[in-house]
Description:
Strand 6 and strand 7 form a beta hairpin. The N and C termini lie far apart (66 Å). The radius of gyration is 31 Å and the shape is elongated. The chain has 2 helices and 11 strands; from the N terminus they run H-H-E-E-E-E-E-E-E-E-E-E-E. The strands form 3 sheets. A 5-stranded mixed sheet has the order 3-11-10-5-8, with no helix packed on it. The protein has a 4-stranded antiparallel sheet with strand order 2-1-4-9, with no helix packed on it. The chain is α+β, with helices and mostly antiparallel strands. It has 2 domains: 5-65, no CATH class; 77-211, Sandwich (Immunoglobulin-like).
Amino acid sequence: MSLDKQELRQRLEAVAAQVSAPRLTVEGLVRRIRRRRARIIGLVSGSLLAVAAIAVAVPIGLSLTSTGPALGPSASPEKLPFSLSYTVAVNGQSVVFPKNGTTPSFTVTPGEDLRINVDVIVPAHARVAALWLGISKGILGSGPKHRPIGINYPMLAHTRRPLGPGSHRFRLRWTVPAGLRPGASRLLAAAWYTRQGVTADVAEPIVTLIMR
């Protein structure tokens, strides 16, 4: 049953007349209803803002955590016993992976066949237990039993034996997916672990492949 404004006002006046407190009037009841409605709307708006803030924070937290080196529970960056160096050539164009700074990039074409040579340089007195090379969409990490995460789009190489000091060359082939849009990117990445001094798992980008 719906009430029009006139009938609602008459009923409120009747209720107010039955109450002994002189301050209870129709206008007072209306003001109370409006204040209560405003409080309810404010609570709902605050809840929606909190949900929106969480939705924004989660992807940022994930991208910040997952794009850097992934270390095992017993290792931290300052405790890593050593780091690897890389020299990469894509279709004859070479670049050296910097130890510090921005990851170098190559411009490629969707559908292009890439011949990739990666020279992995292990420093003196160091030993890599296992190493993986592959394509990543941007998320890198390490899973159970040192298995890499996010580096299998596709996986291009995996060592079967430990790597000692010196340079180790890997010859890779990869066809860039034809459906990638201009400006999209993929990472050529490495994942490796060592048991030298501490057990450490590392996943790091080597070069960025940017679509024309």
